[in-house]
Amino acid sequence: MLAGGYFGRALIVDVTDGTSQTLPLPEEVLRAYVGGAGLGAWLLYRLGPAGADPLGPDAPLAFVFSPLVGTPLTTSAKFAVVAKSPLTGMLTDALASSQFAIAGKLTGHDAIVIRGRSPALSVLLIDGDGVRVCDAAGLAGLTAADADSTLRDQLGRGWRVAAIGPAGETGPAGEAGVRYATISHDGRHAGRGGLGAVMGAKNLKAIAVRAATRVPTAHPGEVLAFARDLRERSFGPATAKYRELGTLANLLAFNAISTLPTRNFQSATFEGADRLGAEAPAGAHGAGDADGDPPPEIGGMRRVARSSCASCTIGCEHIYRVGGGKKTRVEYENVFALGPMCGVSDPEAVLAASARCDDLGIDTISAGGTIAWAMECAQRGLIDAPWLRFGDSAALLRVLDEIGTRSTPLGSLLAEGSRSASRTVGGDSASFAPHVKGMEMPGYEPRTLHSMALGLAVNARGADHNRSGAYEADLSGDLDRLDGGDAHVAAAIETEDRAAVMDSMILCKFLRGVFTDPFAEWAELLSGVTGWDVSGAELRDTARRIVMTKRVFNIREGWQPGDDWLPDRLLNEPLTLPSGRVATLTAGRLRAMIDSYYKMRGLDHDGRPAAGAADGLRLA
């Protein structure tokens, strides 16, 4: 009897001719990888030919659900999009929350995998009537939001859409989309690694799904009890920050402790942070309009709405109004990347830039990191763009349009990402290109967060704060964040393992603080849904298996030991903190932490699986 929460099959669609087939998913594989990012890594390894061009027809693009999708558990309406990244050449997975997750799973599949390339711009439809590939010429050039609304108007009730913006589409001469293009749905984004470019390379503007069935849980009463308990905990102090101010609360806090990357990591504090950080108005009690207080403000601009993802009780979405009455969702990472990273302190310009990224369909972190690198190149005379300067709001908006449309040589250069662009520009520009494995760095300063420095260096996806939340250990007060050692390595591994399980079950990481014994509590949740007798120890093994599988995939695709490293600037330019202490992350310290990480992970000195370490991955 099949475990609860699963259909035991993946749908494989070839959009070249519209044919499809069903791939059985054995229960031992489902139990080994759970779903989401974990199952997606297994599917990519099994279905993707070694060395495939990420933008070629043979490269699979997988939408992967989890056994928790469709249950009443808060934050469970999530899915993973998994592919070989055109930005890094390695595995990437992006998680997102929306009704698309529920409708996609209830087409009757644990995953939908897309291969091939449609002869013309198309939309893929999947529901109880099967699979259809339909013409989408009328959607060309539309924003993802406009494509979504247009399709839903045409298709009728019950359909949910994931679409790409114009930056993801293949150009008229066959030129690839922006290598950090996104896939969007219900205003949310599968953002990092260029998944929108992969979808665009398949000539797909959108995927529309409609629920056709249901999936039972093994123990509905237990699941409902878990859901009620988790809902109550989600209203507690562990999530208060997200409800009251959102993740933008990090900006002022990070600036105060010199961990806010500024002007392409030339500094760790930003003099304009006060203008960009979200604050409760004077006299407010903290929660904003929930307690009758005025809502938070950014540079005098007041929040106009607070919202939640599908099936979520936290409500972390904070919506602000920008120029022309347009609304945009504000988070720490998009404000960091388009604000301090580029030296821009004008809040209206930063929010307008964020909204423009959404319209174009590009990742704000990679866009901001690549633009900041270009600003420094222009400052140094390495590229001919005298107008592109740190702090120039108009230049920021101009270059975003050039990138999203590839309308100029500079835009086309920066659409490739900072690693590729630095190889083209040459000089010493690679030394300050802010990436790991080709993925631009998030808003965490490695020189003042040594656990996070390791997490960024070794992560399979590249520079990423969601697959390794090691900054939690740095900020816990239990470790000296400026003096990395074995304790920092162990902490980084623990956060990486926790992320692997949460990203596969799939639960929002904003819930992580509500669990007192995470692996044991997650095992109990999973047991109630599936009927398996899962233990916390088993889930720890699952986490290690998923982390190892991602590494094995990357090794097959050309990973080299030097890819587990940080930009030269971070290892050669110390920071002097306001306290007078010098924050230094030397190459020797980073090397020692990486060697320790390899040993603890069962890897050899070069970062490859030691004998027996990859046994049991079920990849053959």
Describe what you observe in this structure.
It is globular and about 65 Å long. α11 packs parallel to α13. It is α+β, with helices and mostly antiparallel strands and 620 residues long. It has 22 helices and 20 strands.
Fold blueprint:
Layout lengths: L8 E6 L4 E6 L2 H7 L2 H12 L13 E4 L13 E7 L6 E7 L1 H7 L5 E5 L6 E6 L2 E6 L8 H12 L3 E5 L19 E3 L2 E3 L4 H7 L2 E7 L9 H14 L6 H5 L4 H8 L16 H4 L20 E2 L2 E7 L9 E5 L5 E4 L1 H7 L8 H14 L3 H17 L12 H13 L3 H6 L3 H8 L9 E2 L2 E2 L9 H9 L12 H5 L10 H20 L12 H13 L5 H21 L11 H5 L2 E2 L5 E2 L3 H14 L20
Parallel strand pairs: 1-6, 7-12
Antiparallel strand pairs: 1-2, 3-4, 3-6, 4-5, 7-8, 9-12, 10-11, 13-14, 14-15, 15-16, 17-18, 19-20
Instruction: State the helicity in percent bands.
Output: 25-40%
**Overall average residue pLDDT:** 92
The count of helical stretches stands at 22
Gross geometry: globular
| Percentage of residues in DSSP E strands | 5-15%
How many strand segments? Answer: 20
Radius of gyration: 23 Å
Label the structural class.
alpha+beta
Q: Characterize the largest beta sheet: strand count, sense, and whether it forms a barrel.
A: 6 strands, mixed
Low-confidence stretches: 281-291
Tell me the strand order in the biggest sheet: 2-1-6-3-4-5
Termini, distance in Å? 25 Å
